[in-house]
């Protein structure tokens, strides 16, 4: 559970009062999303046309344009050449070769015209505008010829030449598709790399993009089917944003290979983002390295400074971000993000794929629901591992390493539940709609804060869950402010005893909670039945003095032995739940009459029944 000193509350209160009218870049993009646990199904069947993917062309039926400084040549009346500016005026296919050291190719055709431009060993740089500018057309296709190297570059400034705000090396007012079997290098010393003020589609080819702002940007959408992309950007690597229509501004990724180094978000969408496949290497900002004690081995929550908290509200530096929903159906992801690795302002779903996530904040974050139904997820570094208003785990293999909570259902928003002195409200109260549901998969949590923390309910109805930590008595392996019920599956947890909570009496599967003498990390915890048969054998990754075990093998009326490091305890299950809940249940509730039989009868900290809310 995130904990802050009173000073932080007061400082943030002052900031909110003084800066409540300040518009930040992230706030401009990230609109308010209604709370909902459902993912909207997106029809992706028509994302790419056949021509989007077609890289072939008939040379005999194409118009050749030879680019030479002050001497460019074309024999077609459909092309107008004025000094170093080449303007294409009519529908057709145009093959460009040669170079312009300070020039521009402009497409200025009818709104019904489709134009294909073949880059056949082209180099165009422009010191005052875009190297390639689509002023008007229905749709333009830029195709790199097989085996060719092509360069489009802006050298640092943009001079107004018409009513359009040209701000990229490749700039299009119309639908734009890039494909091919060659390489295109795009450099923008100022502004963006490639921009379409409509739909931007990329289906094949190799791209090397370096930009002072966004690398690839589409107003209505960015759609990528395949290809190889190396992007170094001072803002977002891939960016889609439409402030006029909330259904647009989306990113759809069907495949491709991506290496993105961005100073802001790796991939960002102002509406939805969905990936089916692909390989993604993303470094956003300084990555997780900014968290000084993330991998120091110190078993205490990392305390971020007030300045760091404030800076997070001004710049978005996430790995992959969507405003309405983020859906990942497959792919391979290696993300090192200064902020959240995966982030949605609405719902987030991981259905398949392989993930190695390092984050300076949350590994996976959703303001509404975060759900994982498949895939392999390794959250290597995080402040909190998985956070959302609600969390559903129904499949997958998941490992979480967190310097604070492993899983946290607490209002979703990064500052949710933050109602300290002067803010009004009860920061320890339950949050409406908050829950954690574990129904399948294999989940391993290593946390320095609470292992599994819900401002509402916790339900375990399947799968295998193993929790190591915390070791400090200010947190517990379980922390909840509603109910905690286990009905099926395997649940094993080992951590500190000072704030230990057990599952409650609504559970229909046997569960045992005991305290032990302090045990070293990486010691085995073994559960045996009365015949000495081993029912569970698990290695706790941290030091511990409290154990929770639940399994379908634990039956009421039976006797069990728990061996934990140097200790051994025998337990008779007088009811399905053994070991008192620190909420302080009455006899018969959560094994209430055995409240002093959890191993050492130690006193609980007073007020723990209120210490279940996520403060920040």
What does the model show?
The chain is mainly β and 616 residues long. Among the domains are: 52-188, no CATH class; 456-607, no CATH class. The strands form three sheets. It has an 18-stranded parallel beta barrel. A 16-stranded mixed sheet has the order 2-3-5-7-10-13-16-19-22-25-28-31-33-35-37-39, with no helix packed on it. The radius of gyration is 29 Å and the shape is elongated. Mean pLDDT is 86; it is low at 1-35, 292-303, 415-428 and 582-616.
The overall pLDDT average reads 86
Unreliable stretches covering 5 or more consecutive residues: 1-35, 292-303, 415-428, 582-616
- % residues in beta strands: over 45%
- Assign the structural class, choosing from mainly alpha, mainly beta, alpha/beta, alpha+beta, or little secondary structure: mainly beta
Rounded to the nearest angstrom, the radius of gyration is 29 Å
What is the helical fraction, as a range of percent?
under 10%
Counted beta strands? 47
Distance between the termini: 8 Å
- Figure out the total of helices: 4
Tell me, briefly, the overall form. Answer: elongated
Q: Describe the largest sheet.
A: 18 strands, parallel, barrel
Task: List key phrases describing it.
616 residues, mainly beta, 18-stranded parallel β-barrel, 16-stranded mixed β-sheet, 4 helices, 5% helix, elongated, disordered C terminus
């Amino acid at each position: 559970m995130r904990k802050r000193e009173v000073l932080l509350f007061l400082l943030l209160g002052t900031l909110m009062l003084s800066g409540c009218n300040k518009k930040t870049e992230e706030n401009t993009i990230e609109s308010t999303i209604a709370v909902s646990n459902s993912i909207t199904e997106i029809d992706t069947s028509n994302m790419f046309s056949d021509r989007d993917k077609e890289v072939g062309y008939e040379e005999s039926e194409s118009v050749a344009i030879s680019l030479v400084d002050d001497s460019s040549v074309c024999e077609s009346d459909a092309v107008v050449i004025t000094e170093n500016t080449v303007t294409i005026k009519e529908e057709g296919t145009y093959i460009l070769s040669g170079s312009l050291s300070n020039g521009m190719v402009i497409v200025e055709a009818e709104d019904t015209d489709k134009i294909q431009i073949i880059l056949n060993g082209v180099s165009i740089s422009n010191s005052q505008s875009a190297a390639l500018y689509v002023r008007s057309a229905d749709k333009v296709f830029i195709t790199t010829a097989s085996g060719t190297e092509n360069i489009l570059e802006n050298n640092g400034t943009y001079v107004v030449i018409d009513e359009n705000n040209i701000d990229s090396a490749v700039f299009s007012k119309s639908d734009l598709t890039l494909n091919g079997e060659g390489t295109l290098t795009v450099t923008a010393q100022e502004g963006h790399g490639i921009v379409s003020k409509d739909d931007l589609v990329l289906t094949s080819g190799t791209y090397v993009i370096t930009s002072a702002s966004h690398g690839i940007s589409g107003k209505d959408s960015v759609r990528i089917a395949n290809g190889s992309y190396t992007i170094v950007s001072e803002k977002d690597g891939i960016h889609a944003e439409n402030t006029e229509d909330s259904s647009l501004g989306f990113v759809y990724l069907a495949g491709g290979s991506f290496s993105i180094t961005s100073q802001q978000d790796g991939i960002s969408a102002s509406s939805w983002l969905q990936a089916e496949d692909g390989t993604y290497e993303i470094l956003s900002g300084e990555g997780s390295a900014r968290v000084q004690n993330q991998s120091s081995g110190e078993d205490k929550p990392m305390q971020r400074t007030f300045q760091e908290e404030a800076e997070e509200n001004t710049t978005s530096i996430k790995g992959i971000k969507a405003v309405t929903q983020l859906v990942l159906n497959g792919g391979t992801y290696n993300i090192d993000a200064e902020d959240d690795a995966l982030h949605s302002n609405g719902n987030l779903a991981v259905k398949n794929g392989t993930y190695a996530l390092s984050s300076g904040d949350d590994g996976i974050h959703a303001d509404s629901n975060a759900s994982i139904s498949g895939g392999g997820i390794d959250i290597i570094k995080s402040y909190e591992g998985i956070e959302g208003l609600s969390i559903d785990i129904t499949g997958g293999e998941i490992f979480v390493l967190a310097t604070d909570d492993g899983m946290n259902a607490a209002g979703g928003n990064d500052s949710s539940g933050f109602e300290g002195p002067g803010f009004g409200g009860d920061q320890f109260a339950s949050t409406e709609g908050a829950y954690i549901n574990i129904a399948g998969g294999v989940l391993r949590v290593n946390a320095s804060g609470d292992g599994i923390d819900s401002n509402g309910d916790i339900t375990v109805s399947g799968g295998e869950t193993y929790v190591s930590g915390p070791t400090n008595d200010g947190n517990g392996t379980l922390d909840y402010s509603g109910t905690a019920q286990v009905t099926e599956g395997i649940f094993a947890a080992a951590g500190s005893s000072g704030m230990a909570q057990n599952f409650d009496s609504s559970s229909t599967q046997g569960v045992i909670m005991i305290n032990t003498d302090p045990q070293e990390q990486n010691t085995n915890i073994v559960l045996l039945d009365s015949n000495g048969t081993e029912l569970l054998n698990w290695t706790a990754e941290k030091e511990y003095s409290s154990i929770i075990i639940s399994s379908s093998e634990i039956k009421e009326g039976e006797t069990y032995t728990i061996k934990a490091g140097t200790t051994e305890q025998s337990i008779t299950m007088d009811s399905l739940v053994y070991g008192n809940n620190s909420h302080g249940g009455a006899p018969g509730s959560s094994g209430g009459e055995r409240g002093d039989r959890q191993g050492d009868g130690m006193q609980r900290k007073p007020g723990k029944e209120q210490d279940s809310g996520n403060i920040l």
